[in-house]
TrEMBL record:
Record carries keyword Calcium: no
GO MF annotations, alphabetized: hydrolase activity
Name of protein: Glycosyl hydrolase
InterPro entries tied to this protein: Divisome_Glycosyl_Hydrolase (IPR052177), GH (IPR017853), GHL10 (IPR003790)
SUPFAM superfamilies, per the entry: (Trans)glycosidases (SSF51445)
Short name of one Pfam family: GHL10
Signal sequence, renumbered to the chain: 1-25
Protein source organism: Acrocarpospora pleiomorpha
Keywords: Hydrolase, Signal
Boundaries of every Glycosyl hydrolase-like domain copy: 49-358
Length: 510
C-alpha cells in the first residue's frame, strides 16, 4: 500500500449555533492517506473489519419469506433485513442469487428461481437484483452475489424442469445422485456454462463480489457413487479419481476468478469452504480435528486456491463451539490463520449464529462472543459472516446485543484486499458545521465517508478504529449529526474503501 505524505490538511475552528457559524483557518498540517497510517502512530484497534450476513433464498430460509409474495412485499422484507444489518453496524451482505441453476434476477441463461413465485421459470413481474444491490449500497453495505456452482435441481426429475433449462437442454452435463441433479464438474462445458452465468451477472449488475459456498462435489450421503466415470475416462489425464476431481474444482475456481477480474477488476471473488481442510491423521499439514475433510470428501482444496491466488478471500464455515473434540473452534481458527498468513488472501470466519440457543455449548449466550474474542488474537482474521440473516434479525439469546456491545460498538471500514485496485480518493472539501450537523461537499467517486472524532488535534486520529464514529453512505446527505465538540476528521472512501487523506475541523459547541 502506498503512503500518501505531504498533502495539506485544512483545519478550521467552528462554533455551532442554532443557525450556522463562521470559520477561520488554523496552521496547516500534514495529512497522511488513510490506507496506511503514519509510521509514528502506535498500533490500536483495527478500523477495518468485514461484518456480514448470508441472505439465503433457497427454501425461502431468509428472503423472500415464502413464495408468491408481491414485489412490494418482497421489497419490504428485504429492506427490513438490510436495516437490521445497519443497526448491527455490519458492512456487507451475501445474497444467494443462484440456488440451483436458477436465478433471482432476469437471465437469458437460466430460468427464474421457484423461490420467488413458487413455480420454476415463472416471471415474478420484476427484476429484483437492481433493487437488492441498490438498497444495500444506499445503506453502505457491500453486496456479494452468492452462487451455487454445481447444483442443477433439488430432485432428479429432469422432465419437471422448465423448458430451456440448461439441464434439460444438455442432460449429458448432469449426474443424478441420491435423488438430486448435479452438473458434472469434470466437463469443460459445465465449467464454461457456470463461468458464463457469473460473468453475465458481474457485467450487468453493480455487485461488489462473487461468492461460492461450501457445495462442490456432493456431500457424503447414503454411500452411492457419484456417476462421473465416463468423464473421468475421457478427461482424467492419468490422475487418480480424487486428484482429478479436485483439479476440476480448482479449474472452475481459476476460470471464474479470471472472468471476474477481466470483467470488473474491483469485484471480489471469495469462497466459504467447509471448515476442515484435512485432519492431521491424514495429512501432517491438516488440523488437529477428526471431522469430515473437504479435501477428501467433497474435493474442495482451499489451500490450492490460496497458493494459486485464485480467491480474494476465504470464509471457512467454523460452525462448531470451543472444546468440541472432533472440530474445536480454538483449533481451527489458528489453523486457518496460518493457512492464509503472508498470502494476501483475506480470512473472514463463517459463524453459526443459527446454532445459538440450541444445545450444549450453544445453549450459552457467551459462546459466540467468545469466538470473536479469540479471533482478535489472530491478525489474519479480518472479520466474520453470520449464518444467517433471519437469526441476525431474531437475535437468539440476545447474542447480537452482546456482540454489538462488546465488539461492534463502533462502525468499521471494509478490509483492503491485496491485488485489488488501490487509489487515494480526493479528500472531502468544505467541511463545516451547519446547524447541529457536520457537513461537507460530495466527492466524485466516493461510495462513503468516514468521520473520526478526537478531543485534541492528533495526526494519528484516523490510523485506527478508536476514533471512528460514523461511516456515512454517499447516497445519503453528506452530514453527521453532532453530539459533542472536538476535532472532526472526515475522509472519503471509494467502493473498495480506499481512503482519502482527512480534512479536519475543530467544532466548538455552545
Amino acid at each position: 500500500m502506498k503512503r500518501q505524505v505531504g498533502q495539506v490538511l485544512a483545519v478550521a475552528t467552528v462554533a455551532v449555533s442554532a443557525a450556522s457559524v463562521a470559520a477561520y483557518a488554523l496552521t496547516p498540517g500534514t495529512a497522511t492517506g488513510g490506507n496506511v497510517p503514519p509510521a509514528t502512530c502506535a498500533p490500536g484497534s483495527d478500523k477495518r473489519q468485514l461484518r456480514g450476513m448470508w441472505i439465503t433464498t433457497v427454501h425461502n430460509l431468509d428472503w423472500p419469506s415464502k413464495t408468491g409474495l408481491s414485489p412490494d412485499r418482497q421489497r419490504s422484507e428485504y429492506v427490513k433485513l438490510l436495516d437490521t444489518a445497519v443497526k448491527r453496524k455490519f458492512n456487507a451482505v451475501f445474497l444467494q442469487v443462484r440456488p440451483a441453476s436458477d436465478a433471482v434476477y432476469r437471465s437469458s441463461l437460466e430460468p427464474w428461481s421457484k423461490f420467488l413465485t413458487g413455480t420454476a421459470g415463472k416471471d415474478p413481474g420484476w427484476d429484483p437484483l437492481p433493487f437488492l444491490v441498490d438498497e444495500a449500497h444506499k445503506r453502505g453495505l457491500e453486496f456479494h452475489a452468492w452462487f451455487n456452482p454445481y447444483r442443477a435441481a433439488y430432485d432428479d426429475k429432469t422432465a419437471k424442469l422448465p423448458a430451456g433449462h440448461p439441464a434439460r437442454v444438455h442432460p449429458e452435463w448432469t449426474v443424478k445422485h441420491e435423488g438430486r441433479l448435479y452438473y458434472n464438474p469434470g466437463l469443460p462445458q459445465v465449467r464454461d456454462h457456470v463461468t458464463r452465468v457469473i460473468k453475465d451477472v458481474v457485467r450487468r449488475y453493480d455487485v461488489d463480489g462473487v461468492h461460492f459456498d461450501d457445495y462442490f462435489y456432493p456431500y457424503p450421503g447414503s454411500g452411492a457413487k457419484f456417476a462421473d466415470s465416463a468423464a473421468f475416462r475421457k478427461y482424467g489425464d492419468g490422475k487418480t479419481l480424487a486428484n482429478w476431481r479436485r483439479s476440476n474444482v480448482n479449474k472452475l475456481v481459476a476460470q471464474v476468478s479470471k472472468a471476474v477480474r477481466e470483467t470488473k477488476p474491483y469485484v471480489k471473488f471469495g469462497i466459504s469452504p467447509f471448515g476442515i481442510w484435512r485432519n492431521k491423521s491424514d495429512d501432517p499439514n491438516g488440523s488437529n480435528t477428526r471431522g469430515m475433510s473437504a479435501y477428501d470428501q467433497i474435493y474442495a482444496d482451499p489451500k490450492a486456491w490460496i497458493k494459486a491466488g485464485s480467491v480474494d478471500y476465504l470464509t471457512p464455515q467454523l460452525y462448531w463451539p470451543r472444546g468440541l473434540a472432533i472440530a474445536d473452534y480454538k483449533v481451527l481458527v489458528p489453523w486457518w490463520a496460518k493457512a492464509v498468513r503472508g498470502t494476501g488472501v483475506d480470512l473472514y470466519i463463517g459463524q453459526a449464529l443459527y446454532q445459538v440457543g440450541t444445545e450444549g455449548a450453544w445453549s450459552k449466550a457467551g459462546e459466540m462472543p467468545a469466538h470473536l474474542a479469540l479471533n482478535q488474537k489472530f491478525p489474519e482474521v479480518k472479520g466474520d459472516v453470520y449464518f444467517s440473516a433471519s437469526q441476525v434479525r431474531g437475535n437468539p439469546l440476545k447474542v447480537m446485543d452482546r456482540l454489538e456491545e462488546d465488539h461492534y460498538a463502533r462502525p468499521a471500514l471494509l478490509p483492503l484486499i491485496q491485488g485489488l485496485p488501490k487509489s487515494t480518493p480526493a479528500a472531502p472539501a468544505q467541511v463545516r458545521a451547519v446547524g447541529g450537523a457536520l457537513v461537507w461537499q460530495a466527492q466524485p467517486g466516493a461510495r462513503a465517508y468516514a468521520v473520526y472524532r478526537t478531543s485534541q488535534q492528533n495526526s494519528c486520529a484516523t490510523a485506527d478504529g478508536r476514533n471512528l464514529v460514523a461511516v456515512i453512505p454517499a447516497s445519503a446527505s453528506p452530514a453527521y449529526q453532532l453530539k459533542a465538540g472536538g476535532f472532526f476528521h472526515v475522509t472519503a472512501l471509494d467502493r473498495l474503501h480506499n481512503e482519502s487523506a482527512p480534512t479536519t475541523v475543530k467544532i466548538t459547541l455552545p
